[in-house]
């Protein structure tokens, strides 16, 4: 059974950094496509960053140059390094995975496995 567990969220001032972690259980990280999604208050869940099984990465325009997705295969863990945080980055951040290569990497409908989420709050 595939399980994902996020951690690392918190409350920070604008301009600061956070690193989110997603520990994966039940499968080997490099055999799936994985990504980070977020849901701002009152809005729909949106794709932030994705790493496909071949290592290809895709980022939402709003986070390019500030966020970096990476993985540690030895620890079976996915990360999201978030720098220069802005208030508009506030939201619940979710880790997602799927065995199939997504046709649209940042489309939340392409992923069948989800974590419970970790809250990120950025104050101005």
User: What is the 3D form?
Assistant: globular
In terms of quaternary structure, the protein is single chain
Order of helices and strands: EEEEEEEEEEE
| Percentage of residues in DSSP E strands | over 45%
Q: Helical proportion?
A: under 10%
On the 0 to 100 scale, the average pLDDT is 94
Describe this structure in words.
Strands 2, 4, 5, 6, 9, 10 and 11 form a seven-stranded mixed β-sheet that branches. A four-stranded antiparallel β-sheet has the order 1-3-8-7, with no helix packed on it. Helix content is 0%, strand content 49%. The protein has strands at residues 3-7, 10-13, 18-25, 33-39, 46-51, 57-59, 67-72, 77-82, 91-98, 113-114, 118-123. β7 and β8 (77-82) form a beta hairpin. It is an all-beta fold and 124 residues long. It starts with a strand and ends with a strand.
Q: Quick summary of this structure?
A:
This protein is mostly beta strands and 124 residues long.
Any descriptors?
mainly beta; four-stranded antiparallel beta sheet; 11 strands; 49% strand
């Amino acid at each position: 059974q595939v399980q994902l567990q996020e951690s690392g969220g918190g409350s920070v001032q604008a301009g600061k950094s956070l690193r989110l972690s997603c520990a994966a259980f039940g499968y080997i990280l490099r055999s799936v496509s994985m990504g980070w999604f977020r849901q701002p208050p009152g809005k729909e869940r949106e794709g932030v960053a994705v790493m496909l099984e071949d290592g290809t990465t895709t980022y939402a325009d709003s986070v390019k140059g500030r966020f970096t997705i990476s993985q540690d295969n030895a620890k079976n863990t996915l990360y999201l390094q978030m720098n220069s945080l802005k208030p508009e980055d506030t939201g619940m951040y979710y880790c997602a995975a799927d065995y199939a290569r997504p046709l649209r990497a940042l489309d939340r409908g392409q992923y069948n496995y989800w974590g419970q989420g970790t809250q990120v709050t950025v104050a101005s």
